[in-house]
Specification:
3-stranded antiparallel β-sheet, 3 strands, 7 helices, single chain
């Protein structure tokens, strides 16, 4: 799957998880997993640190997404430099499309909330929302917060 197609599938999953009514905030796990699996030389160390901490807390300590989010907010108080990571070549074989396919096979209702096409999400007859705007609002707030913006 191409990088663009992977991003598109990730966006679809994010639209579902953001609209999901579960107070455990499952969206946090999706963001952390995608960030860790797709990190590259351009990924900011803080983003990868938060993703890895979030995944560790969820998998090993059974933290909910809401608990991971609170931990991220506590970590945000750290103003020093974040450590760089040597990125492994192999990040595993499970991709976003695999998760969505398994959810369907398991009977987890993934419903289409809207459609994405390139750079926008359209919900019914509403005006399109730019994917970049959604990413900025839901994912980019923490680095800006840490920088004192």
């Amino acid at each position: 799957m191409s990088r663009a197609a992977e991003q598109e599938t990730y966006n679809e999953l994010c639209f579902y998880t953001l609209a999901h009514g579960d107070p455990s905030f499952i969206h946090q796990h999706v963001v952390d997993a995608f960030t860790a699996q797709n990190a590259n030389e351009h990924t900011k160390p803080i983003g990868l640190t938060f993703a890895l901490v979030g995944l560790y807390l969820h998998v090993e300590k059974k933290f909910s997404g809401k608990q991971v989010q609170r931990t991220h907010m506590q970590l945000a108080a750290h103003k020093g430099p974040w450590p760089p990571f040597d990125l492994p070549r192999d990040r595993g074989e499970i991709r976003v499309a695999d998760v969505m396919a398994r959810a369907g096979q398991a009977g987890v209702p993934l419903r289409v909330l809207g459609t994405t096409g390139g750079d926008a999400l359209t919900l019914g007859a509403e005006r399109p929302i730019l994917v970049k705007t959604l990413q900025q609002r839901f994912e980019d707030w923490l680095p800006a917060y840490m920088a004192g913006a």
